[in-house]
Amino acid sequence: MTTYIVRRLLLFIPTILIVTIIIFLLMWIVPGDTAMLILTGNDPNEGGRVSLEDVERLRAKLGLDRPVHIQYADWLWDMVRGDLGESLWYQTPVIDELGGRFVTTVQLAVMGMGMAFIIAVPLGIISAVKQDTKLDYVSRLIALLGIAMPTFLIAIVVTYVLAYVFDWLPPLDYANLWEQPLTNLQQMVFPALAIAFHDLAFTARVTRSSMLETMRDDYVRTARAKGLTEMGVIGRHALKNALLPIITVSGYQFGRLLGGVVIVEVIFLVPGIGNMLIDAILHRDFVVIQAVVVLVAAVVMFLNLVIDLIYGILDPRIRYQ
Amino acid sequence: MATSDLAAESGSPVRNALLAIPAAYHSTVETARRKPLGAVGGVTALILIIVAIASRLAILPVPDPYASVGDIFLAPSREFPMGTDVIGRDILARVLHGTWISLYVGLGSVLIGITAGFVLGITSTYAGGFVDLAFQRVVDALMSIPGLILALAIMAVLGSSLNNVILAIVIGMLAPVIRTVRSQVLTLKEMDYVTAARAIGARPQRIVFRHIMPNCLAIYIIMATYYLGFAIIIEASLSFLGVGAPPDEPSWGGILTVASRETPETGIWLLVFPGIFIFIAVLAFNVLGDALRDVLDPRLRGR
């Protein structure tokens, strides 16, 4: 087990370094200069009014005149110490804004995933147990529909239905989870629902195939042979073993889910990192973009690492591969 | 290895799949009968492609999608079958032209992305050793950035234009494609006929071009179909967020941006029609992909 953990950790560190290099280089090749962007207030027509000396001075102040690898090392070291830089647009430290927003985004993602799980797992089980019956086709159809509906389309449909039927509009101000938990949860239910819909399609599919696989295993036949009720066979034996791959695959899907969360946040005006990212992109605020993307990638990688380790504990066969 | 034993027993499944390609062409009726849903998906995909080309050539009997031709926010009528938008442009014309944008971006990014993924995947696997190991870490790193977020970051750098959207989607899909190609090539490398080719002294180039690549054709077609749906969704999402197609372009995502800012009373037709088109397009390519996978690669059936 120790070798397994060490091996996984050794793979983790270079990979996260490569992520930071990719993102840094991506923002480094940006057409136009960051110093120029700040001085012109992001307005390309202002270019003529800025003096070259000003640009040079700001470049020197921001350290943009240094070689690229020094800039990268500096940026990385700052990040390790928890300094994510200052927003080019708002001129405030990025970390101040990012912390609270990050909690909101994770809350939304977890709620969405939880709701998807509650609906999708029973759907997948029914589909597998009643394979090739009408019930199976209906639940597979639901799954297929969910896959073909992009998250943002579902989100707009949800807001329209809510506005039309209940006169509900996305709140302009979301309550804090810790101060007013009930109001907050009430407000977050609808955006979470929009996220759940797309995700449940996928989870239902995985549940179905995982269940179908375990249902063919010998121990399920043994359980049946010794006279267990069908519920006992499915619940106690098949589901227990089928659940592991379902949870793993869902965990790996968390990154894809975060992509959907970004867009749902924009539609429901949720103050999470998604809205922050879009805002930063529209303002060409590259310091914020870098910080958000690195954070998301780090979370995804960390989660994958945790899943791998848990899997290693639960399924000893994996360690020796 | 269990997998190669199994494969040797039934002949290469991928070769069987290849043999199935002409069969699928010649007995389309038979295939359609076996996979009715896939056939519907295929026909729908074909219609969408024809519509896209026709609207690009401006030979459809609809008004100019860029010009305002009536009052604003009209409900569907005989004159405007899908109503009009926020500045009185014909929604039908815009949605049809959106088909061109979606498929241009979709097909463009899929052809470039999957081909590049194949070249990089095969090269890296064959290079082996340190190169392969290092390259796989880069793929790991790219995999950890969600596709949409990576595409968003790239669009922030490049600025909005259709070709930039293609580039962003290509980079967003490259890592998973390389991963899939790699596992396929690793399996193929263990096949007896590859060992045999090596044994008679074939050079690696010959093995790659004569044995590996033809056997990847089935998975190429399957992946292309699936990723077309993915590309359409990412394009629509980027355009919806205002960083994809330029705002004037009648892309489906762009039309939906307007819908999301309106109330149900005024925006309902702006939501319904592009929404249905996105839904149908993605569904068609997904269903077609499922059917192609079953027909071309029986090993994956039911997964």
Key attributes of the depicted protein:
heterodimer; A: 321 residues; mainly alpha; 76% helix; 0% strand; globular; B: 303 residues; 13 helices; disordered N terminus
SSE layout and pairing:
The complex is a heterodimer of chains A (321) and B (303).
Chain A: H1 2-28, H2 34-39, H3 52-62, H4 68-80, H5 94-129, H6 134-148, H7 151-166, H8 181-215, H9 218-225, H10 230-252, H11 254-268, H12 273-282, H13 286-314
Chain B: H1 2-9, H2 13-26, H3 28-34, H4 36-56, H5 91-127, H6 129-143, H7 147-158, H8 162-189, H9 192-199, H10 204-215, H11 217-240, H12 252-261, H13 264-296
Helix pairs in contact in B: 2-3, 3-4, 4-5, 4-13, 5-6, 5-8, 5-11, 5-13, 6-8, 7-8, 8-11, 9-10, 11-12, 11-13, 12-13
Describe this structure in words.
The complex is a heterodimer of chains A (321) and B (303). Chain A is an all-alpha fold. Chain A contains 13 helices and no strands. In chain A, helix 10 (230-252) runs antiparallel to helix 13. Chain B is an all-alpha fold and 303 residues long. Helix content of chain B is 76%, strand content 0%. Chain B contains 13 helices and no strands. Chain B has helices spanning 2-9, 13-26, 28-34, 36-56, 91-127, 129-143, 147-158, 162-189, 192-199, 204-215, 217-240, 252-261, 264-296.
Fraction of residues in β-strands of chain B: under 5%
Q: H/E order of the elements of chain A? A: HHHHHHHHHHHHH
Radius of gyration of chain B in whole Å, from Cα? 22 Å
Overall strand count of chain B? 0
Succession of helices and strands of chain B? HHHHHHHHHHHHH
Spatial separation of the terminal alpha carbons of chain B:
22 Å
What's the β-strand tally of chain A?
0
Helix content of chain B: over 70%
Shape of chain B: elongated
Radius of gyration of chain A: 24 Å
| Global outline of chain A | globular
Greatest contact pair?
A: A-B, 55 and 47 residues
User: What structural class do helix, strand and pairing data of chain B support?
Assistant: mainly alpha
Low-confidence stretches of chain A are none
Oligomer: heterodimer
Sketch the major β-sheet of chain A.
Answer: none
